Amino acid sequence: MEILKVEGVNKAFGGLKALHDVNLSVEAGTVHAIIGPNGAGKSTLLNCFVGRLIPDTGSVTFNGTTSLIGLKAHEINQTGVSRVFQTPEIFGELTILENVMIPTMARRDGEFSLQFWRRLDADAEVRDKALHMLEDLGLASKKDIIAGSLSRGDKRRLELAMCLVQDPKLLLLDEPTAGMSRADTNNTIDLLQRIGEERGITKVVIEHDMHVVFSLADKISVLAQGTVIAEGTPQAIKGDPRVQEAYLGG
Ligand code: ADP
Ligand code: MG
User: Which residues, chain by chain, have CB under 5 Å from ion ligand 2?
Assistant: First the structure.
């Protein structure tokens, strides 16, 4: 079954055509990687899935019937699509636990706002769920640390916890290992693999690091200059001359 279907998506910024007739089909339960050189349009495409950008033309359909075009970011989130952006978006002045409690409560109550965080203290159910998630991601011992002071790797892990606690069906990750050491990168790969298997979450991963892509992906779409130029298994993509040309020649 297709969990995400992208058809004929175009997006221009002034005279610059960032996406040109993009088609993409993501199978439920798989890891689908989107790779491509810098400026290929990967983040632009992801932004079209989460309500940050509206395509000029084309459709983005979730779970067979739900059009994501025109929905607000929080509405898309409520349908079960969660995202981790290229730059971690966390509440830097709050503790790790508080950061995870906010989306936990948002999931339950349908609101996501910093101004409600003081209410969190009293909410045992939300606290327990958030704590459980932190244990699962190996962050429990740091729960009282102020998020802004965390290492880059831990910030990314925290952001992942904030997404997962909302029980998404589809998780979108924009360069989840960017700026990480090799050790942190490998931990993140393990984590993402484990998450997929245990929770049955479909993942779309934008990634620069080929080690990550080939470790994780079931299917790869290669984007170059706003167009999908190749698609297939990691094995097929590895040997595809168009892909090598896009990376090396262009
Ligand atoms: P990638 O994520 O693959 O590196 P992007 O999607 O960020 O690429 O960018 C694709 C192209 O669109 C680039 O040429 C970039 O400069 C341009 N672009 C992206 N966002 C904007 C924007 N908000 N305004 C103008 N141009 C943009
Ligand atoms: Mg990008």
Answer: 42-43
Mutate to test the pocket of ligand 1, among 16, 45, 228 (most ligand atoms within 8 A of CB): 16
Nearest CA to ligand 1 atom 10: 41
Q: What is the pLDDT of residue 176?
A: 86
* Pair (173, 67) in one structural domain: yes
- Whether 12 and 123 map to the same domain: the answer is no
Single-letter residue type at 14: G
The last residue of one of the domains, among 151, 167, 183, is: 167
State pLDDT tens for residues 167-210.
899 999 998 888 788 888 898 888 888 887 788 899 999 987 88
Q: Looking only at Cα atoms, what is the longest distance across the chain?
A: 58
Q: Whose CA is nearest to atom 15 of ligand 1?
A: 39
Domain carrying residue 14: 2-80+168-249
b/e for 160-188, b at 16 or more Cβ within 10 A? bbbbbbbebbbbbbbbbbbebeeebbebb
Is the same domain home to 154 and 191? no
- Which ligand number lies closest to the CA of residue 42? 1
> 106 CA distance to ligand 1 centroid (A)?
30
Q: What is the pTM of this model?
A: 0.89
